[in-house]
Every structure is written in C-alpha cells, then in structure tokens.
Amino acid sequence: MPEIPSKLLAGAVDEMASLPGIGRKTALRLVLHLLKQPKESVERFSNSFIRMHKELYQCEICNNISDTPVCSICSDKSRDTSIICVVESIKEVMSIENTMQYNGVYHVLGGIISPMEGIGPSDLKIDSLIERAADIKVNEIILALSTTMEGETTGFYLYKKLLSCNVMVSIIARGISFGDEIEYTDEITLGRSIKDRQPFKS
Amino acid sequence: MPEIPSKLLAGAVDEMASLPGIGRKTALRLVLHLLKQPKESVERFSNSFIRMHKELYQCEICNNISDTPVCSICSDKSRDTSIICVVESIKEVMSIENTMQYNGVYHVLGGIISPMEGIGPSDLKIDSLIERAADIKVNEIILALSTTMEGETTGFYLYKKLLSCNVMVSIIARGISFGDEIEYTDEITLGRSIKDRQPFKS
Description:
- The structure is a homodimer of 202-residue chains.
- Chain A is an alpha/beta fold.
- Chain A folds into 2 domains: 7-55, Helicase, Ruva Protein, domain 3 (Orthogonal Bundle); 76-199, 3-Layer(aba) Sandwich (Dna Topoisomerase Vi A Subunit, Chain: A, domain 2).
- Helix content of chain A is 40%, strand content 12%.
- The first copy, chain A, has helices at 7-17, 24-36, 39-55, 90-99, 127-133, 149-162, 187-195; strands at residues 57-58, 65-66, 80-87, 104-108, 140-143, 168-171.
- In chain A, strands 4-3-5-6 form a 4-stranded parallel beta sheet. In chain A, strands 1-2 form a two-stranded antiparallel sheet.
- In chain A, helix 1 crosses helix 2 (24-36).
- The longest helix of chain A is centred in the N-terminal third of the chain and has 17 residues, at 39-55.
- Chain A starts with 6 loop residues before the first helix and ends in a 7-residue tail after the last helix.
- In chain A, 26% of the residues are buried.
- The mean pLDDT of chain A is 90.
- At the A-B interface, helix 1, helix 2, helix 3, strand 2 and helix 4 of A face helix 1, helix 2, helix 3, strand 2 and helix 4 of B.
C-alpha cells in the first residue's frame, strides 16, 4: 500500500478502512471516487449515516429498527401478535419478511450468546422476551436462530428460560435446502431431515 | 435483497451502494455496522469525507492532491524539477513514489483519453503540461501511462503535442514483470521485451 501524500486523504481512508471487510487499498479507491464527486453528493453521502444513526429508533416492543418508536411490523394491526419469532438481528427480520410466509411478530435479540466474543445472555434482549412470552395472549415462540454452535446454545438457553412461561416453543425446520443434492448434503443435515420427515403433500 | 423496513436505513444503504464495487448486500452490512458504533464514531467517519472534499487542494503546479496549495512533492527543494513524469491520476503518483526510484516531479492528467467514456484531450490537464514542458529548465518528460488502448492513445497524443516543446520524451520500460514465467507471458509483452533488450548488468 503506497503512502498517502495528504493527511486529510489518509484520514478519510483510515475511516473507510474501519468498515468490516474493507481493506486499505479498497478504502483508497472508494475515497478517491468520493473525491471526484460534486460537493453535494459527498455531503448527502456523509450526512445519510449521521442522520440514520441519530434518528433511527429501536422498536420499543421488538427491538427492530424503525423510523418510529414502534416499528411498522409491531404497529401493523393485521399481524398476529400471538406468535413471536425470535431472531438474532434485523437482518433476519428482513430475510424472513422477504419470504412472505410469516404473519406473526418478531423479537430481535441484538446478538447471540458467544463466549468466544464475550457475549453473554445479559448482553441480549432476553428479559424483555420472557416478559412478552409471559403475556397470556402469546401462544407460540418460534426460535429462528442460525444452526451454528452459538445459535444452538442460544436456542437451548432460551428454551429453558421459556419453560416457565407456559408458551409453546418451536424451532424453524432444518433439512436439506431447496436445490440441494442428497449426495452432497452433510450427514448431520441429512440425518436430521430423515428423522424429521413430514407427510408428503401433493 | 430483502426489503429494508426503514426509510432512513434504506437511504443510507443507497448512499453506501453508490460507491463503486459495493453492492446492496455489502452496503447493508456496512451500514448496519455503522449503526452499532457510538455516535462519535459515525460522526467522525462521515465528517472525514466532507472535510477531505472541502479542504483538499489540487496542486497548482502538478494537479496532485495536497493539503496545501502546492503539493509536498512540488515544494520539495531536493526534487529534480527538470524531469516531469506524466501520470493518469494520483494513484500512480503514490505507486511510483512507493518505489523510491524517482526523484523528479509529476504531472497528473486527471484521466486518460477514452472516446468510449466520452473523455477527450480537452477534459485533461494537457495544456498546463505543454506549458510546463516548454520551460527551458525542463529536460525530460516521462510518460507513465497504462499499457491499455486508452493509455497508448493518450501517450501518442501527448508525444505529438510535446514535439514542439524541444524536450526529450521517454516512456517507462515495458517487459516481463518481476516473477513472471516466460512460458506464460503474453506474446506482445514477450516480443516487446526481446526487441527492447538491455545490456546485461551484473
């Protein structure tokens, strides 16, 4: 990486390179692109992050991000508030919404239990989940966490915690993905998909 | 790409995705990273681009970017101002400086002649180059442009223009790269490297 001849430019490159997955060479390329843009574009670019950071709400109910104190999902009267789908972050909310297969509400944990990264249950929005689950109107909690070690650990922890809430706890189906070839499916997934087989529906 | 539930977030993602080579999925990942940072970090991040754009100078002599009206290279008394190396952009200035093999000064064209992208000679800093080259104290102009069609065209154009300036025009050496295997070198490069062979120096 060549030395940058300007402190102002070097500062901007350092900031850009602080983003995850952006190396210093890429950062330099992006910053030089910004440098070529008109003043208004650079101001709009930069201010969009400040404004987003300042004005975004975390939904009071589910912790989803929102332009309003209560998010568009929680405030949607047509959603079924008796089912709560527990996810790690807003990315999973977006992914599940995108399937258009779910009409319940969400609970965003804001992370996942990971001793390796020093994230314990107290760092996550678990207390508020238990509170919501204890509501008599809530019938089901769906755990939609990643099938990683951390995801499984978090799921098991939540399951134990939710036992006292008198609520059904379910977990999203695991099995072979659409388009997967059986031959190349790993044995844990394949074994589980045989064990959890479903009645054939035509 | 899932739909983004917040206009503020979507706006920030759009801005991030306007950077070259950053798709919307990556943009979302980067913006969500920013969202998790403290307010001060996001402000420092954003303001670094605005400040850079506002406060950077284009060197009055060579068009290199600079924190001062005349860049650090042009104002360095130890540099040889009788040799001017012509480059496309400040990226090449940085690359050549990094080799520590050059003690002359530069001239940044600010682009390269490219009819495909609608960039003609008048869009580049060519007049000021001719003006500098006409100075009796300038002995040599080195063309350090890419070996692409556009680079060759630009080089040829500059060569013709510089004929009237009574200055030596040279071009950086082309040949096989350090570490290249002859077997896999393309024939134009290999042919040229044989034609332009140099006396062996031990």
